[in-house]
Amino acid sequence: MTGADDLLEKLAAALGPKGLTRDPADLSPWLEDWRKRYRGAALAMASPASTQEVVQILKLCSAANVPIVPQGGNTSMVAGATPCEEGRSLLLSMRRMNRIRSLSAQSNSAVCEAGVVLSHLHEAAEGEGRRFPLTLGARGTATIGGLISTNAGGTQVLRFGTMRGLVQGLEAVLPDGTLFEGLTPLKKDNRGYDVRQLLIGAEGTLGIVTAANLKLVPAIGSRSVAWVGVSSPTKALELLHLLSAGMANSIEGFELVPRSALELVLAHVPGTRQPLEAMHEWNVLIEATAPVAAPSPEEALSAALGSAFAAGLAEDAAIAPNEAQAGAFWRIRDSISEAEHKDGPAAKHDLSVEVAAMPGFIVEATAAVERRFPGSRVIAFGHLGDGNVHFNVRAPQDAGPDWLRDEAPAVTRYVHDLVVAAGGSISAEHGIGQMRLSELHRLADPARLGVMRAIKNALDPKGIMNPGKLVPPFDGAQESLAEATLQP
Ligand code: FAD
Ligand code: MLT
Ligand code: ZN
Fold first, then answer.
1. DSSP 3-state assignment of 415?
2. Nearest bound ligand to CA 429?
3. Beta bridge partner(s), residue 346
4. Quick one: pLDDT at residue 472?
5. C-alpha distances in angstroms, 146 versus 66, 199, 212, 266?
6. Which of 62, 64, 82, 254 lies in disulfide reach of 33, CB 3.0 to 4.6 Å?
7. Considering only CA atoms, which residue is closest to atom 1 of ligand 1?
8. Which band of pLDDT confidence, cut at 50, 70 and 90, is reported for residue 476?
9. Residue 173: CB atoms within 10 Å
10. Given 3-state DSSP classes, what are the helix, strand and coil percentages for the chain, each rounded to the nearest 5?
11. Which residues make beta-bridge pairs with 69?
């Protein structure tokens, strides 16, 4: 019997028939990433039903030196939850751990297991007159554990921040099977290094998130959603400043949509309609909200848009007259990825620069890329107010079938060089996974890489947690933090 067979026998005994499968048909859908760019292999898929089962799995895998690939909804944009090809890993699905352990309107918190799907938490919070304010296009599939492990952002970051700011407590299992119990939501806690924050955004490379205490906010009493045509990203950002000045805490969504993205959605997503009479080169989708018992934000938004017209910041605007129309505006925004996917290959990037620098970056980088790669077409869309856009470069129309493999990497290196030169990040919200690993390795400064490797080595000395993701491999196995920091 091999070491792997022995491990699988022990896992089967510990987890029962629902907790472990080796059936290729059961495994198959989970071995490919959401973008269908990576396909891996695994020894088996474990699906624990409790934290104690996760503890057992990690103890057994650690003893057998078998790598673990944690997976939630498998919506990672960077193939973070897809095992590598060699097939030595155990795929650890967290989807059976889907219980909301408690939800308290009084303390504005919910304790969720890692496999709770984001939209289920939204519904449960709404039932208690509360709201979990982070949302994104994959909300019907993405899980709390995956969102925490990627420090997800989404479309409401402007007001409520990323996952980091919404996790008040965390329960996790460390690589050797030790349980980290940090669910209590302490407002003040200075016992040294912040283990919770270390695990948030760690992409499953430092341990398994099993549950979290999440912050809730008051339910929305009313919202007002507007679609505005603008002439440039600069005007869009000026519009945001104008709105923020007058409507301080009520603007929570401000998403940039170029004409090219809107055209793709209208062409590929059934049931979508052009939001304004004419097409505009740039558009913004704005959401303003008000709490229960407060006046609707519509009047304030309408007045602010009036000032925007007077100041030459807006070309046209429509405020959704009802919830159905508001939903239709958001559907356009949330369908951009899907429409791009249907349209054909694109080199995708998730960039951030300083907020004030983003309009200039979009315009200059677009011109530079389209000049350097004739026929390519840039679509830059998304979270302008966070200084984060998805800067996607579509293949030229006459590109061959192997464009993604043969040409796109050079496009990506070029785009990443531009963003690094602008002082920005090659991953604003999607993480590194396996898709961005070589670029992180190429571009991150030695101090950052050295710290990351030192932390990884300290917590996961056997390197069994999600290998091949996030942390670039050691050049020399014993490379020290000091050596890494001193490298030119
Ligand atoms: P998975 O994809 O399964 O895993 C993601 C990573 O976390 C992997 O590295 C995995 O190993 C690790 N992981 C998963 N669960 C655990 C756990 N319990 N413990 C430890 N590690 C774990 N992201 C944004 O930030 N903003 C957006 O606006 C946005 N929009 C999106 C829209 C669409 C249509 C799609 C498909 C994705 C979008 N994303 C967005 C990507 C986003 O990162 C993921 O949707 C989400 O964060 C991942 O959740 P998941 O449960 O699918 O995790
Ligand atoms: C979005 O903002 O729509 C997502 O992060 C998905 C994407 O980058 O395609
Ligand atoms: Zn995004």
1. helix
2. 1
3. 394
4. 75
5. 21, 11, 12, 30
6. 82
7. 74
8. very low
9. 23
10. 40, 20, 40
11. 91
Residues with CB under 6 A from ligand 1: 34, 70-77, 80-81, 94, 114, 136-138, 142-143, 145-147, 149-150, 152-155, 203-204, 208-209, 337, 429-430, 433, 466, 469
The DSSP line for 317-338 is EEE-SSHHHHHHHHHHHHTHHH
Ligand 2 nearest-atom number relative to CA 333 = 3
In this structure, what are the phi and psi dihedrals at residue 103, rounded to the nearest 5 degrees?
-145, 120
Single out the residue of 38, 3, 1, 4 nearest to residue 20, CA to CA: 4
Distance of alpha carbon 263 from alpha carbon 362, whole angstroms: 19
pLDDT at 485 over 50: no
The Cα 40–Cα 434 span in angstroms is 11
For residue 143, the CA-to-ligand 1 centroid distance in Å is 7
Mean pLDDT of the chain: 94
| Pocket perturbation via mutation, ligand 2, pick of 151, 334, 390, 415 by most ligand atoms within 8 A of CB | 390
Helices and strands in the chain: count of H runs, count of E runs: 18, 19
Q: Residue 122 C-alpha to ligand 1 middle, in angstroms?
A: 17
d(CA 15, ligand 3 centre) in Å: 36
pLDDT for residue 249 is more than 90: no
pLDDT digits (tens, 9 = 90+) for 348-364: 999 999 999 999 999 99
Count Cβ neighbours within 10 Å for each residue of 273-302 and write b for 16 or more, e otherwise: eebeeeebebbbbbbbbbeeeeeebbebbe
Residue nearest to atom 38 of ligand 1 (CA): 138
Token pair, residue 73, equals 């909804």
Ligand 2 pocket at CB < 6 A: 77, 137, 336-337, 350, 382, 390
* Residue 211 contacts residue 101 (beta carbons within 8 Å): yes
Which residue in 68, 78, 65 sits closest to 47, CA to CA? 68
Ligand 2 centroid–CA 463 distance in Å is 30
Residues paired with 458 in a beta bridge: none
CA 341 – CA 268 distance, rounded (Å): 9
Q: Are 94 and 69 in contact (CB under 8 A)?
A: no
What type of residue is 297? P
Distance (Å, whole) CA 314 – CA 307: 9
Pocket test for ligand 1, best of 98, 139, 149 (most atoms within 8 A of CB): 149
Give the pLDDT band (50/70/90) at residue 471: very high
Nearest-CA residue for ligand 2 atom 9 is 337
**pLDDT given at position 248:** 75
